[in-house]
Write a sequence for this structure.
């Protein structure tokens, strides 16, 4: 492959990054329209606690992060659905609980401090072939799930009460979306890190909304912006020896800033009302 992807580690980084760059906005589009953009942050902090637990117990952190994130996502959705806590309060509970749990676990073993940073901020240039295969398999499962349940998920996002009247399993679909968010975060841990994955879920979607008049087209544009952000972020990281995770997110943020200036932000926030025609 041409520069900067002529070396194997860059090729592995590119494959893992492209999968996450496509899947994160794919899930983020539903979260943004549901006005739960911070869900990624909340579950990301749970994943942080799961990583710390895995490192402490000498278990592959991906498994512990996945278990903690999925269980937390299900519990969060149950709290919200039952009205035990509002969406914001439920997110705050898991947001601060996750970060506090991670800090406590790190404090139990000082040797974790060096290893934890690759999961907090990403370590894309050091991913192994096994890591890449894991990301690819998880990404394929995410895309397949969205392909099978995307219409039903959109119905719930567009109008939850109408979806209930129509007989859709709203609670199960909301839980599915939360679980997909957790799985996406775990897949992206080594790419941009648990502290930045929420940005990759939201920023390309914000750009997609500025470019499209329907939810479906916004989804396509969001994925495209996510993929381009990964490629340009990796190029910048190789050229100037930058942190790849941060570079990818900065490219996504710059894309939104540029598109917002060009379009005047006139299309943001109204995609959902126009998407019934898309």
């Amino acid at each position: 492959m041409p520069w900067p992807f002529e070396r194997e580690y860059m090729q592995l980084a590119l494959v893992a990054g492209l999968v996450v760059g496509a899947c994160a906005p794919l899930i983020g589009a539903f979260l943004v329209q549901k006005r739960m953009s911070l869900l990624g942050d909340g579950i990301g902090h749970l994943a942080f606690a799961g990583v710390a637990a895995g490192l402490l117990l000498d278990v592959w952190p991906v498994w512990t992060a996945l278990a903690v994130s999925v269980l937390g996502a299900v519990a969060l959705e149950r709290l919200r659905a039952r009205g035990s806590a509002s969406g914001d309060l439920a997110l705050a509970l898991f947001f601060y609980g996750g970060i506090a749990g991670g800090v406590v676990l790190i404090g139990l073993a000082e040797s974790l401090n060096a290893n934890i940073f690759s999961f907090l901020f990403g370590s894309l240039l050091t991913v192994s072939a096994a890591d890449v295969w894991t990301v690819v398999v998880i990404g394929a499962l995410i895309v397949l799930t969205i392909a099978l349940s995307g219409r039903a998920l959109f119905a719930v996002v567009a109008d939850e009460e109408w979806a209930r009247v129509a007989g859709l399993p709203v609670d199960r679909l909301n839980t599915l979306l939360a679980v997909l968010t957790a799985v996406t975060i775990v897949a992206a841990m080594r790419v941009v890190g648990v502290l930045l994955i929420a940005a990759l879920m939201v920023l390309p979607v914000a750009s997609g909304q500025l470019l499209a008049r329907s939810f479906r087209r916004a989804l396509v544009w969001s994925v495209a912006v996510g993929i381009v952000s990964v490629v340009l972020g990796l190029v910048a990281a190789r050229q100037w020896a930058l942190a790849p995770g941060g570079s990818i997110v900065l490219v996504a943020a710059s894309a939104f800033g540029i598109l917002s200036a060009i379009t005047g932000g006139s299309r943001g926030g109204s995609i959902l009302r126009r998407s019934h025609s898309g």
About this structure: Residues 273-278 have pLDDT under 50 and may be disordered.
